[in-house]
Structure formats: structure tokens, C-alpha cells
Design a protein that fits this description.
By secondary structure, the protein is mainly alpha-helical. It is built from seven helices and two strands, in the order H-H-E-E-H-H-H-H-H. It is globular and about 55 Å long.
Length: about 160
């Protein structure tokens, strides 16, 4: 079940984003073994839940998390280009988000600093730090899930070839 089906307040905060043509375009890119849309929704949803629990700025943390990976890439990019993007996509995502949405300073900081410490820019707000942490936890989970799925597929192929 999608996180968009679970919480009306969360849905209201992100509905204009999920219906935005730029977000829709990048949402289908592969990202950590799933789609970037699934990844962004997962990061936004868990950031939303943490913000409610600890009384953080819910609108900012949710929308910033939803937009943190709003960048395009090519399926045929080289490993070198992919590696470089690790360090540059946060700024690109912030620029793309600014071109598509009205952002406040907290949302901009969340998007641009979500790759801390890799981008060496220290988050200015607690909401930025939380999204950075949640993004890493979610990405780790997605990576492990992808490995598990690949392992299961290999086992099935092995059984079928007998």
C-alpha cells in the first residue's frame, strides 16, 4: 500500500507535487532499486511522521523531503557521471524545485543539504538534518530490499534450471 493512501494530512501536503509534470517525469527513474517517486514518497512520509511526533515544521519537512531528489538523469550515463551526481544533485534538485514551486528557506535548505555530509554543507535547520538522516535510512533499506529481491530471483532461476 502506498503511503499516499494512509494519511489525509500527508496527502494534502504533497498532492500538488505528485501531480506536477516535472515530478511525474522524474518519479519513474530507477533509484535505489525502486522508482524515484516511491523513494521520495517514502522519505517524505517518514519525515512527516517524525515531524508530527517531535513537533517539527510538518509542512516544510514533508514538502522538502518530497522534493529532495527532483533531478533528471540519463539511463546511459557513465559510472563516473553517476558518481559525480552524488555530489551535485542536491543543488540541481533545489533549483528544479524552485522553478516549479514556491519554497521557503527551510524547504530550500532541506533539499540542498539532504546529502550531508557528502556535500559538505551543514544543515541549517533541524528539519534539514532529520530529512538527511531519514533519506539515508530509507536508501539503505531500499538497497537491502533490492539485494533481497535479486537473491530470490536467482534462487528461482536456479530451481527452474534443474
Amino acid at each position: 500500500m502506498s503511503h499516499l493512501d494512509k494519511n489525509k494530512e500527508f496527502n494534502n501536503l504533497v498532492k500538488d507535487i505528485v501531480n506536477n509534470k516535472t515530478f511525474i517525469k522524474v518519479a519513474n527513474y530507477n533509484h535505489h532499486g525502486i522508482t524515484r517517486g516511491e523513494h521520495s514518497i517514502r522519505v517524505a512520509y517518514y519525515s512527516f511522521k517524525v515531524s508530527k511526533k517531535f513537533n517539527f515544521k510538518t509542512k516544510e519537512i514533508t514538502r522538502g523531503a518530497m522534493l529532495h531528489d527532483l533531478f533528471e538523469n540519463s539511463d546511459d550515463e557513465t559510472l563516473k557521471e553517476s558518481f559525480k551526481r552524488i555530489f551535485t544533485h542536491a543543488k540541481t534538485s533545489r533549483i528544479n524545485a524552485e522553478n516549479n514551486f514556491s519554497l521557503n528557506e527551510i524547504e530550500k535548505d532541506i533539499i540542498e543539504k539532504h546529502m550531508f555530509p557528502l556535500n559538505l554543507k551543514l544543515p541549517k535547520y533541524k528539519e534539514s538534518f532529520i530529512v538527511s538522516l531519514i533519506d539515508k535510512c530509507v536508501a539503505s533499506y531500499e538497497f537491502c530490499l533490492c539485494l533481497k529481491i535479486k537473491r530470490i530471483k536467482r534462487k528461482k532461476l536456479k530451481l527452474m534450471s534443474r
